[in-house]
Amino acid sequence: MSADTSLLVLVLVGLLYGLWRWRRRSRMLEGRDEQGLPVELRGASIAFAEKTFRSRRHGLVARVDRAYRVGGMVQLVELKTRQTSAASLSDVIELSVQRIVLRDQTGEEVSDTAWVMVQLARDGSRATHQVKLLDEASVLALAQRYRELKRRSPLARKPRPASRLAMCRDCGHLARCHTRYGDRM
Amino acid sequence: MGGDDYLSASQLAQLGYCERQVVFDAEFGRRTTEPQRKAQARGLRAHAEFFEESQRLAVASARKGRCMVATLVLGECNETRTLRAFRDQVLRRSVAGRWMVRLYYRRSPGWCAWLARRPRAQRIIRPFLLAAASLAYAALARSSNDGSEQSKA
Q1: Which residues of B14-44 are buried (b: 16+ CB within 10 A; e: fewer)?
Q2: Could you report the per-residue pLDDT of A48-107, keeping only the tens digit for each?
């Protein structure tokens, strides 16, 4: 075999190897992307990703991390990076707002349950938690409460602290909060 | 996110965390600490990866074919989606599985044409497809539990 032929064979083998590695990697990525997803969402088509929606009538805006179309309904998924794998009330509120704005802007039916996908900060592993969303009246009451707190309205005289002391550890207002309310230390 | 008269979902979510923070932010401006900034940066990176994943999934789902027999007999429903997910998550992971998928897609247009003219035959195979879908669901649920523990971003 001449040197030219050997080189050609070598290049071809290299190309085939590269192609095989690329296909393997694409397959692996495809599989990995759906790992950690609940069975209900696997294989479902993605309706929206990282998209902002607004509700004019309620003056609300939200960015949807990912939404799937399942059985004629849209199912919301919110990604969170945390130290512990759990869904919280703030996730429920955020997703409930997303539900309202998405429905108002697109007219699509959005499920009243959604998924919080928690990615653990320590090792990147993921777990999903299904949550029941708040109804529209509750979200609007929260919006009203938020505006009152912002305005420091007399109606919102006693703002609630975080439910657990550990949540205050990294807060930038911790010293101020202790001075004003005499707790949280 | 707001920057206008709109209230954002993340602003309202603060109420679920701490109402006092909302008041202090209004009075003194937002104060972030170093651990919070690190957490925000980590969150932004995770969201960028998550978005890339979403794009890959959208492309993959557009490229993959429909499960023809199941779609014909059961229609577009949860069971059809489960069978499709089983094809992608389980069968496509092995050489033998991919061979079966290829064989199926080679044969299924003929089977569909035959079934389309025979509603009775469709009614007969319907329970078998539903049973297959529930077995596939169980297999996926098992791998989903494993995945929750093992999947790395």
Answers
A1: bbbbbbbbbbbbeeeeeeeeeeeeebeeebe
A2: 999 999 999 999 999 999 999 887 789 999 999 998 899 999 999 999 999 999 999 999
Give the predicted TM-score (pTM) of the model: 0.70
Cβ contact, residue pair A150, B28, below 8 Å: no
Partner A contacted by B6 (CB < 8 A) = yes
Is the Cβ of B103 closer than 8 Å to some Cβ of chain A? Answer: no
Q: Which residue from B150, B152, B65 is spatially nearest to B112, judged by alpha carbons?
A: B65
Dist. CA A131–CA B98, nearest whole Å: 36
Which residue in A27, A28, A39, A53 has the most chain B C-beta atoms within 10 A of its own C-beta, making it the best mutation to test that interface? A39
Q: Which residues of A22-46 are buried (b: 16+ CB within 10 A; e: fewer)?
A: eeeeeeeebbebbbbbbbbbbbbeb
- pLDDT computed for residue A151 by the predictor: 86
- What sign does the CA torsion over A110, A115, A121, A124 have? negative
> How do residues A150-164 score in pLDDT, each as one tens digit?
888 777 778 999 988
| Per-residue exposure over B81-92, b if at least 16 CB sit within 10 Å of its own CB, e if not | bbbbbbbbbebb
**Cα–Cα distance for residue pair B137/B77, rounded to 1 Å:** 13
d(CA B125, CA B115): 10
The string of pLDDT tens digits covering residues B6-60 is: 999 999 999 999 999 999 999 899 888 999 899 899 999 999 998 988 888 877 7
ipTM above threshold 0.85 = no
| Cα A4 from Cα A19, distance rounded (Å) | 22
